[in-house]
From TrEMBL:
Residues 1-20 are annotated as: Disordered. One of its GO terms (cellular component) is Cul4-RING E3 ubiquitin ligase complex. GO terms for biological process: positive regulation of proteasomal ubiquitin-dependent protein catabolic process. It comes from Rhamnella rubrinervis. This is DET1- and DDB1-associated protein 1 domain-containing protein. The lineage of its organism: Eukaryota, Viridiplantae, Streptophyta, Embryophyta, Tracheophyta. Belongs to the DDA1 family. Residues 1-39 form the DET1- and DDB1-associated protein domain. It holds the Pfam family DDA1.
Length: 69
């Protein structure tokens, strides 16, 4: 039993002569999962030096005094 094959009657749909059609070695879902895992394992970018306070310690917030009437 031979599968049905499309044979065009015009030249507009002919592929280039050097085109090679192959199948993927990995399933598209597995490839996506592996790419996501690689992205999670990649080291994060270090914080810039200008984000840190110059004196190197935390600043305390000004306390708010409770005013009762």
């Amino acid at each position: 039993m031979t599968p049905a094959t499309y044979h065009p009657t015009h030249n507009r749909t002919n592929p280039p002569p050097d085109q090679v059609i192959t199948t993927e070695s990995k399933n598209i879902l597995l490839r996506h999962i592996y790419q996501r895992a690689d992205e999670k394992l990649r080291p994060k970018r270090a914080a810039s030096e200008h984000l840190l306070p110059e004196h190197g310690c935390k600043q305390l917030k000004a306390s708010v005094q409770d005013t009762s009437y």
